[in-house]
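Collaborator request, handled under Task 6.
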Amino acid sequence: MKKAFPALFLNLTWMALGAALLLSLPALVELFASPGVPLMWWAGRAVGMLAYTALWLSTLFGVFVGSRGAGGLLDRSMMIDLHSRWALMALAATVFHMLIILVDPHSGVSPLSAFVPMISEKLKGPVTLGTFAIWGMLSIGASTYFMDRLSKTVWRAIHAMAFGTFSLALFHGILAGSETQLPVIKAFYAGTTAVLLGAVIQRIMLSLDESNSTKSGELS
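Structure tokens returned to the collaborator:
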């Protein structure tokens, strides 16, 4: 009991300090921000781009895992490790992105609208896409956590939502981002999408080749 109390007290103290920092964040940012510069919004967008990049990398490495390391070109065990690590990074960055947007008094996005579609005061459509993307990420994360309790068919069906989740995050970023008009951002979105599509096409072609090889072996 004597050892448990200090640990509990320490955890509660850290939680209180974190809550106090979160609540004071808007005032601190507004204090250091220049007049007319929406620093909170840009901070949210920067973390949002980080979340998108992490989700893209997680999805890309997941495709490489499914294609057995891009047909042997890459180490599959490394792809599995990178897929898991970037998935966690994507989830953490998404949560941080949400927190920044929610505590921004000018965002027009309430905590409820972050999880309920079509009720946001501003950017209703783009925010709804982000909401569905969050649902997808949470569903995939939960299915991975309970993978041992699910059948492979159910797990694969839920995990296949990764492509839809990435697409939702992509269009959320394009439509909600103030920086989307910048040529470098347009090129980044186009490039990441092209690379992922190329990986998916390669995976499909490898699967077709394996299927044809299996059929040829059975006939012979």
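The cover message to the collaborator said: "The chain has eight helices and no strands. The radius of gyration is 21 Å. Please let us know whether this matches your experimental observations."
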